[in-house]
Hints:
Low-confidence stretches: 1-19
Mean pLDDT: 76
Radius of gyration: 20 Å
Number of strands: 2
Strand content: under 5%
Largest sheet: 2 strands, antiparallel
Order of helices and strands: HHHHHEE
Helix content: 55-70%
Amino acid sequence: MTDTSNIFCKIKLTKLRKNKMFCTDIPAPNYFIFSDSIPHLLYYSHIPTAIVALFFGLFIFYKSRNLASKILLSLSIVFSLWVFFSLVVWTNIDSRIIMFLWSFFGILDPLIFFLSFYFIYVFVHKKDIGFKLKLFLLAAIAPAIVFNLKNTTGVFDIANCEARQGGKTA
């Protein structure tokens, strides 16, 4: 799209509400996540997996409170947050909510990888990982978290009404 159509789209969308931008190509969701404009299969892939993950993590934590169960509970909570935020980003029309929740993906993604590795290591070796390896893994995911906190991971594409990674809209 040309720059003039992007400007026109921005003016059109911002006139809907003063100082607020809403995407007009889809209807507003009910109860924050339910919308008729997205595939219903999305609900079957997101909601049951988050519920099962939380139930499984809580059940294992309740039965045995060792290090592996604590890590698994943490992993299931982070995964469920990721799934819920993903569902909200898919269904919502308010760009402020979309970009706010989009910013958490840069933190949740590395945490899922870190907790998965940590859980597998503790579960297989039956012992905690060493301090140096913990420090190395945390140093590996630290740039992703720091850059995410600086809000350099993405922008909102006004013309297409969606978040984009990398900072470029065209």
